[in-house]
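Check this.
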Amino acid sequence: MTRLTLGGNLGQVTNAGMLNKLGQLRDLFISNLFGMTKSDCLLPIEIPNLEYLYLDSVPHEYASAMRSVAV
């Protein structure tokens, strides 16, 4: 899988850290979902091909963690 879109009407995500198992992921879109924490952050070593990340209406803690590893 190289592209994944996850969206919900203020839905809840559990075990978001499992996205690190999608090693070929290039594009990830997450919108209107909650429940993710800093510990669920994608790791560049696990997702080396990630080129595009779109986050909208996600927990601040998760977005901040993702931003810190993306830079």
Summary: The chain has a mean pLDDT of 94. The longest strand covers residues 3-12. The chain is about 15% helix and 30% strand. The radius of gyration is 11 Å.
